[in-house]
UniProtKB/TrEMBL annotation:
Belongs to the carbohydrate kinase PfkB family. It comes from Candidatus Kaiserbacteria bacterium GW2011_GWA2_52_12. SUPFAM superfamilies: Ribokinase-like. InterPro entries: Carboh/pur_kinase_PfkB_CS (IPR002173), PfkB_Carbo_kinase (IPR050306), PfkB_dom (IPR011611), Ribokinase-like (IPR029056). This is Sugar kinase, ribokinase. Keywords: Kinase, Transferase.
Amino acid sequence: MEEVQPAIIAHMSRILVSGSLAYDRIMNYGGLFADSILPDKANSINLSFQVEDLSVEFGGTAGNIAYNLALLGEHPDIIATAGNDFARYKSHLLLAGIEATTVRFVENDMTSSAYVFTDREDNQIAAFHAGAGAQPYNSPVGIDGRAFAIVAPGCTEDMATLPQSYRRQNFKYFFDPGQQTTALSPEALKNGISGAQILFASDYELGLIAMKTGWTEDVIMDNVPTLVVTFGAQGSRIRTRTGDAKVSAATPAKVVDPTGAGDAYRAGFMKGILAGFSLEACAKLGSVIASYVVEVHGTQNHKFTMEEVKQRHQQSYKEELKL
């Protein structure tokens, strides 16, 4: 297979990570939701469930990506808005080596929160309160000393304005619309893709992008030099204007919860870019980092050392990771 070369090579420098910061409130119900839902009363549901446990986890796309970059020895700057209850999250980031000095604080609102109820057969009922995260960043974003930026799912206004700002400053950025693909207008999607160095998307999200923009994959490639498509346990695909490569997924020790794996993949991929790896090597590193997330509940509860990363890379790809 022809080696796909990286579009950019950056050296030791901070990465700007825009996206969301959120508390994930996870509740487990020992019964089945279906046992409490009366089919003939479905239009007037009034239910309350006694949950067995409640955990509050740190999440959000910007937080997840930054956390994994910090585990990889980087010092990312988070471009996101948080609320008046952010102190606990900030302490967590500081312990991980992330200063959080670039996070904008809003005093009159709370940090974004996801509420997830799960029954014993893993059926879920979820609710999301955007809170402060719905407010645009509205602060200057400095690029001096920064290698590049990633625009991850977050405030839709930021996802529209940041690419424009980066392009005006001739600053390299990656676009990752993710779960906000459905919320972004066709114009905002086209704006984010056009001028980006890399477009990240899952296979499903790529289909949504094509549907909303009316762009085929070939047209997308006319607007961005590199497309990275993830397929979960089936690995990922990297397409450039000169080649197309598939990379298998790394093998985790166990699979507990896939939530947050995509953010970890992006962090590993960007670490590879900083190290000057080929795009295929970046994808392999991204997959190795993602494999640690799926082994635990919560998107920022995993740990790894560089030696462990190298060992898993060797086990998964039968080649040495020089990092």
